[in-house]
Design a protein that fits this description.
The protein is an all-alpha fold and 431 residues long. It is built from 23 helices and no strands.
């Protein structure tokens, strides 16, 4: 760790690369709610059952399986486009085009045909996951490890700003115009990412693009280098502890993701209006999440990763208990504001710490594939469990649901304590 003053630490946020990550974070965050909680609000208004809405969460498993095609994004150039933009920017642009197309199709179809709507949502999620692979690699390759906390904070800021637009903005547009207008507007806003990709410079890489040869030898060589190589490298660097690290990654966001799909249905079922949800849960929550991410970005530079990770894990679990309390109280905007403040402050803090931690685990020779492995594992268990969230709500109620979600955070707390002690022991054993 560098011994930086507080002023020097804060000036990290003025770096051009850090600023660029804000806009790329916006591009990465915009589609997420549009196939997640914003979509659930649209489905709720159409009186789609809570169980069916819960199953829509499985579209998000696409984000959790992106490791399957990450080696392609990491190593295979796109004809003509990669030569002009570079490996990372070309794949970002392809993802952004797919997102915009999928959102336009969703706006035209709507919940009148749930099967086709789910297919269009899948296109958005698949394209978004592809873009995420390229953005994550771009972020890690663009800055040294000690600056990854700031890069993560900038990414989270842009990401959370996009969530505000896709959450509150879409709800405002749906209330005053229509859901069709809302989704077309969101598709147009993908131009933010497109323009950033055009203007930003391609980062230096430690590995080159790999021209795939469609022959047995060529395919075997590509598989060994681009697919097997990143996994072999990770386990060789971390040994038996690699399994503990992967387990920690898998459970860290269980508590957060498991409750996410039911957030908007919960607010609506409690009696809050779309405008109240937009004003408090989205707008006010946005500023709290940004505060959490900025605080964490500074603390990562000053303290390292483990203490912020512990604080984030504990805070996220506790906030689910606050939602449980909210479910048995009368619907007052002030109650909602308190719970949303705590939830978003802890969520922004935890997300920033965790992104920085995952970034620290990657080898830049396999940036996209290794980070995709980590981020896929981070979301897959939570996404799978969240698919059953509607069944829990329908059969037991919101109070029980949020208590269970809080308990899902306990393994993450225990594992971050173990990893912190292991890291300290390793440092103490070094001469």
């Amino acid at each position: 760790m560098q011994d930086l003053t507080w002023r020097e630490t804060l000036l990290i946020y003025t770096s051009p690369r850090v600023i660029a990550m804000t806009f790329l974070g916006f591009s990465g965050g915009l589609p997420f709610l549009l196939v997640f909680s914003t979509l659930t609000a649209w489905l709720t208004e159409w009186n789609v059952s809570r169980s069916t809405i819960g199953f829509f969460a499985w579209i998000g498993i696409t984000y959790s399986t992106k490791v399957l095609w990450a080696p392609v994004v990491d190593s295979i150039p796109i004809p003509f486009l990669t030569k002009t933009l570079g490996q990372r920017r070309s794949w970002m642009l392809i993802g952004q085009m797919g997102i915009a197309l999928g959102l336009v199709l969703m706006s035209l179809i709507g919940p009148s045909d749930l099967l086709i709507l789910s297919c269009c949502a899948f296109l958005v999620a698949f394209s978004s996951a592809t873009q995420d692979v390229a953005i994550d690699a771009f972020r890690i390759e663009s800055a040294e490890p000690e600056y990854q906390g700031a890069m993560s904070a900038a990414y989270v800021f842009g990401y959370r700003l996009a969530l505000l637009i896709a959450g509150a903005g879409a709800l405002y547009l749906a209330e005053y115009f229509s859901w069709t207008i809302a989704y077309i507007t969101m598709a147009t806003l993908m131009l933010v990412g497109v323009i950033t990709v055009i203007l930003v410079a391609e980062p230096d890489r430690q590995s080159e693009s790999f021209q795939l040869e469609l022959s047995p030898i060529g395919l075997r060589r590509w598989f060994t280098r681009a697919v097997a190589g990143p996994f072999v490298d990770f386990f060789s660097r971390n040994g038996k502890v690699a399994f503990i690290i992967l387990l920690f990654i898998a459970v860290f966001r269980l508590s957060d993701i498991a409750m996410g799909i039911m957030a908007n249905p919960f607010y609506l079922d409690m009696g809050y209006t779309k405008i109240e949800i937009a004003n408090v849960a989205k707008v006010f929550g946005f500023f709290m999440s940004i505060a959490g991410s900025l605080i964490c970005g500074v603390l990562v530079v000053k303290w390292g990763l483990m203490r912020p990770l512990f604080i984030g894990a504990v805070a996220v679990s506790i906030t689910n208990l606050l939602f449980a309390s909210l479910s048995v109280l009368e619907p007052k905007v002030s109650y909602l504001a308190i719970v949303i403040s705590a939830d978003n402050l802890s969520g922004g803090f935890a997300a920033t710490a965790f992104i920085a931690y995952l970034s620290s685990l990657t080898n830049r020779a396999y940036t996209a594939t290794q980070y995709a492995l980590f981020s896929s594992l981070m979301t897959l268990p939570g996404k799978f469990i969240s698919g059953f969230s509607g069944l829990v709500v329908d059969n037991f109620g919101y109070f029980e649901f949020f208590v269970v979600a809080a308990m899902l955070g306990i393994p993450a707390i225990l594992l971050v304590v173990w990893l912190s002690r292991y890291e300290q022991a390793q440092l103490a054993s070094q001469p």
